[in-house]
């Protein structure tokens, strides 16, 4: 008998269905049928209210004749409210009137869908921010009393900066570098946590660590700048408690909170973390803290978050610590340094256990992807220090350390200052990235191809950390648009990255609006303060990401909503491309086949292929895609317009770049491969190009 499995809302994967953004979520499911004979001709969807308050009971069913099973539109007139919990079941029908059993229920809870749902104030440390030097972490705390048995508790929290929350001495959730990196001038993501099991009747305490992260830490091209989105890190927190007797209580960030400096003295994305265990405050996030043993100050209550900044739950999975890797080998370098080899290039940090030594002793951890002349190879990092430092408190039983607010790209780690012989069991690497669901795989009989695929997967894991980046190790780590433009089709085959890239594309469009319709080179736009890369100059491939990335997501999922969401971004980009005789205006600088191995090391844009030729092939590809996208969305007049533009551009390309004997003016593998793959040439020309490519 067939059965319904894997009922899912939108692109959310359990357990990431708490505090979601959607009030009318689409529903998907799979069919499990050992016989292969069941053919769905109809479905029935049931939703019931999962709220504890029985007075809000909801039970609805909807039955439809349809073979659809993916992203089925919300079939009810009822629109979900903020904080609403639902359970959903699905059963199916076939043309023989067979009916499957009801599926197991899938659960979803909405977040705070309206701005007025937020009652908390934005709070910050009272000491002066905004200097050229990094700020130490801040510890925020609030004690509160609960007067009865807790039935439900939700913490809604976000920060300008990166945070980690605790309740009664226990860490809240498993997110890393929350709330993630967004275009902070436009959107700030919040997280929702279930705290029922962490709270007790009587005295409780909430504590939050806050560091600069991407918000005000140093970020950008070639080392970047500080305070790009603001000089003052800040916190917003709202804990909503429902008692078993039906009464409720809300604890919010406000002037009653206190703050002090924590043991993390430096927390930088590029440079690493410095932690002084001597400055730890015992039980700081519990009501049992000795208040006389440390100095706490009243927080600074800041003005409300601008209404222009959206508070959103976002759509992608969070960054998590997803894997632990043990070192394979301990190496003594020619200079006598101790280096650990983890056998795999990864992104994350080191976790140390059983650290022993005198109080005040320092252990330093340096990270790199390669060895050079037997030593740690830090030259590719440029000015990025990629160094963590731990100062011992002198606990004779041994200490434990792992960074909270930084990450590194590395295979090798140099450990300096370890007292005694370093046991490999005392060190492990923690792998961190956006916790996407794997959707594809590859294996064949050729080991080198299997290794190539493994490298691609690890490369994606390392560069999909909150946003899709160019690299995870040096003083850059930015959301370069050109990188994603080319990698998006591959990415969607390996992991379900729909939610993450949907988030990124929303921010891209915001930054595009700021730049008068020209997309940013990187998003979130950390080049705002950079005179070279904050360019309002249109650039092929990089800015074509406005079309190429949504199209890749659509091709993999069939979800037209991503095309509709980004359509204005796409058409705006097509309007601002400077053209002359149907092709790119030859005046704007083009990056072209960037980093062609044949290009000079000091001029990576001067590859073997004419950069203008490359730009125009991508223009034609974008026009071709806009023909399809406009038609899919029902914009048929615009589809016809793009069709005419595409035909004109092809004709102009033939005149400009194809010789009489059918060769391209750039005699390179890249030129012919692109012309074939992007369908630029006629069928006869394509065959000739393939022969020429084989010869080259």
UniProtKB/TrEMBL annotation:
Catalytic activity, EC: 3.2.1.40
Enzyme class of the recorded protein, top EC level: hydrolase
Ranges that cross the membrane: none
SUPFAM superfamilies named among the record's database cross-references: Six-hairpin glycosidases
Domain Alpha-L-rhamnosidase six-hairpin glycosidase: from-to ranges: 439-693
Domain named Alpha-L-rhamnosidase concanavalin-like: residues: 332-433
Domain Bacterial alpha-L-rhamnosidase N-terminal stretches: 149-323
One function term, GO molecular function aspect: alpha-L-rhamnosidase activity
Catalysed reactions, as listed in the record: Hydrolysis of terminal non-reducing alpha-L-rhamnose residues in alpha-L-rhamnosides
Any one Gene Ontology BP term: carbohydrate metabolic process
A Pfam family matched in the record: Bac_rhamnosid
Protein's name in the database: alpha-L-rhamnosidase
UniProt source species: Fusarium ambrosium
């Amino acid at each position: 008998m067939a059965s319904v499995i894997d009922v899912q809302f939108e692109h959310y994967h359990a357990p990431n269905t708490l505090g979601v953004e959607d009030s009318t979520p689409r529903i998907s499911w799979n069919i499990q049928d050992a016989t292969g004979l069941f053919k769905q001709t109809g479905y029935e969807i049931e939703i019931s209210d999962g709220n504890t308050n029985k007075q809000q009971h909801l039970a609805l069913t909807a039955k439809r004749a349809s073979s659809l099973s993916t992203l089925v539109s919300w079939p009810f007139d009822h629109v979900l409210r903020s904080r609403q919990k639902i359970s959903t079941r699905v059963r199916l029908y076939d043309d023989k009137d067979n009916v499957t059993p009801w599926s197991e229920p899938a659960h979803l809870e909405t977040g705070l869908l309206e701005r007025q749902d937020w009652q908390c104030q934005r709070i910050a440390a009272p000491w002066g921010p905004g200097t050229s030097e990094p700020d130490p972490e801040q510890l925020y705390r609030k004690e509160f009393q609960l007067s009865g048995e807790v039935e439900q508790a939700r913490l809604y929290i976000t920060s300008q900066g990166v945070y980690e929350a605790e309740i009664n001495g226990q860490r809240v959730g498993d997110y890393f570098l929350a709330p993630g990196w967004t275009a902070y001038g436009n959107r700030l993501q919040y997280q929702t946590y279930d705290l029922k099991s962490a709270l007790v009747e009587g005295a409780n305490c909430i504590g939050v660590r806050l560091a600069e992260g991407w918000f005000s830490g140093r970020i950008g091209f070639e080392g970047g700048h500080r305070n790009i989105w603001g000089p003052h890190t800040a916190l917003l927190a709202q804990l909503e408690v429902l008692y078993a007797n039906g009464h409720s209580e809300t604890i919010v960030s406000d002037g009653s909170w206190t703050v002090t400096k924590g043991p993390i003295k430096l927390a930088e994305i590029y440079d690493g973390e410095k932690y002084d265990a001597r400055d730890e405050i015992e039980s700081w996030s519990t009501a049992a803290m000795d208040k006389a043993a440390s100095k706490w100050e009243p927080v600074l209550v800041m003005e409300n978050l601008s209404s222009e900044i959206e508070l959103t739950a976002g759509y992608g999975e969070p960054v998590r610590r997803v894997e632990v890797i043990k070192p394979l080998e301990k190496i003594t370098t020619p200079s006598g340094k101790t280096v650990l080899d983890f056998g795999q290039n990864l992104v994350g940090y080191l976790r140390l256990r059983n650290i022993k030594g005198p109080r005040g002793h320092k252990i330093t951890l340096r990270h790199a992807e390669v060895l050079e002349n037997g030593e740690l190879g830090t030259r590719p990092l440029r000015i990025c220090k990629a160094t963590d430092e731990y100062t011992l408190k002198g606990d004779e039983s041994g200490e434990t350390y792992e960074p909270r607010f930084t990450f590194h790209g590395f295979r090798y780690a140099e450990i300096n200052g370890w007292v005694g012989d370093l046991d490999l069991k005392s060190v492990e690497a923690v792998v961190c990235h956006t916790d996407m669901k794997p959707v594809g795989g590859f294996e064949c009989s050729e080991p080198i191809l299997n290794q190539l695929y493994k490298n691609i997967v690890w490369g994606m894991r390392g560069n999909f950390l909150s946003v899709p980046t160019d690299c995870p190790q040096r003083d850059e780590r930015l959301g370069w648009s050109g990188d994603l433009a080319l990698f998006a089709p591959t990415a969607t085959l390996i992991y379900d990255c729909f939610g993450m890239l949907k988030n990124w594309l929303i921010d891209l469009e915001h930054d595009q609006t700021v730049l008068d319709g020209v997309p940013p080179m990187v998003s979130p736009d950390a080049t705002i303060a950079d005179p070279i890369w904050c360019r309002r100059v249109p650039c092929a491939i990089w800015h074509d990401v406005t079309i190429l990335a949504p199209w890749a997501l659509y091709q993999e999922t069939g979800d037209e909503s991503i095309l509709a969401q980004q359509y204005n971004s796409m058409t705006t980009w097509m309007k601002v491309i400077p053209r002359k005789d149907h092709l790119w205006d030859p005046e704007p600088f083009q990056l072209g086949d960037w980093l062609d191995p044949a290009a000079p090391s000091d001029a990576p844009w001067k590859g073997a292929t004419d950069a203008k030729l490359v730009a125009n092939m991508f223009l034609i590809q974008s026009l071709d895609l806009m023909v399809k996208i406009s038609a899919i969305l029902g914009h048929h007049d615009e589809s016809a317009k793009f069709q005419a533009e595409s035909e004109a551009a092809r004709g102009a390309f033939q005149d400009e770049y194809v010789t009489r004997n059918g060769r391209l003016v750039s005699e390179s593998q890249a030129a012919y491969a692109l012309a074939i793959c992007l369908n630029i040439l006629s069928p006869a020309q394509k065959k000739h190009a393939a022969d020429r490519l084989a010869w080259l």
